[in-house]
Specification:
alpha/beta, 4pyrrole_Mease_sub1, 4pyrrol_Mease, 2 domains, 8 helices, elongated, Methyltransferase, Cobalt-precorrin-4 Transmethylase, Domain 2, five-stranded mixed beta sheet
């Protein structure tokens, strides 16, 4: 039986990868992944064999990885951020039983939510929700329901996939829902683009201003709770330690 590592590579730079992730990639003979993610590790491990696929071929990609591991080749499936957060780890485990020669092991990675939050300070310092605004796999009605629930609970929010070429209005629609459900227009918000990569940008603004911000698929958006405060170019959602003093 051969290992199939589902490896979260963080934003992609070696400095953001865990030691466990680097060791798993080093042990692997074959690295498989979405072309963009595989290219991010190719410079670190140029001697490895690579198989890449474009977007929307996730099932084929996972089956190729499982077939390779089942045939005796130690394999790694690379995913941006963490393999279990909007990544391939779940699908690999779902398919694993059909490939008795493969053993899936999930290797944790640094997510865009965590690394982006660090850039902005501490926007996720208390209870928070992570919601993707992409409706490719989740109906918009479900996304809307989750946004409403998060707003009613006054959670801080981390929003993935806020806008794409085909979904240009999703962030504006999300902001409208949050405002309708009671979020203040003055709620502190922020975004980070190209986290940990060349050209990284970040900005802090209010919820009312957020809907018109120039975000894209490489941007992670943060919406504060009612207690989130702005400190210059940073934002903090306090845990409440100061109340004990």
């Amino acid at each position: 039986m051969s290992k199939l590592y589902a490896v979260g590579i963080g934003p992609g730079r070696k400095e953001f990868m865990t030691e466990e992730a680097l060791e798993a990639l080093n042990r692997s003979e074959l690295i498989i992944g979405y072309t963009v993610y595989a290219d991010q590790v190719r410079g670190i491990f140029p001697e490895k064999e690579y198989i890449t696929t474009p977007m929307k071929q996730e099932i084929d990609r996972c089956r190729m990885a499982l077939e390779a591991a089942s045939a005796g080749k130690t394999t790694a499936m690379v995913c941006s951020g963490d393999a279990g957060v909007y990544g391939m780890a779940g699908l690999l485990i779902q398919l694993e039983s059909s490939y008795p020669g493969a053993e899936v092991e999930v290797v944790a990675g640094v997510t865009a939510g965590i690394s982006g939050a660090a850039v902005l300070g501490a926007p996720l310092g208390h209870d928070f929700c992570v919601i993707s605004l992409s409706d490719l796999l989740t109906p918009w009605e479900v996304i809307e329901k989750r946004l409403r629930a998060a707003a009613r609970g006054d959670f801080a929010l981390c929003l993935y996939n806020p806008r794409s070429k085909k979904r240009r209005d999703h962030l504006a629609r999300a902001v409208g829902i949050l405002l309708k459900e009671g979020k203040s227009p003055d709620t502190v918000c922020g975004w980070v683009r190209q986290i940990g990569r060349t050209g990284q940008e970040q900005k802090v603004m209010t919820l009312a201003q957020l809907k018109d911000e120039p975000v894209d698929m490489f941007t992670t958006v943060f919406v504060g709770s009612g207690s989130t405060k702005r400190y210059g170019s940073r934002m903090v959602t306090p845990r409440g330690y100061e109340k004990k003093q």
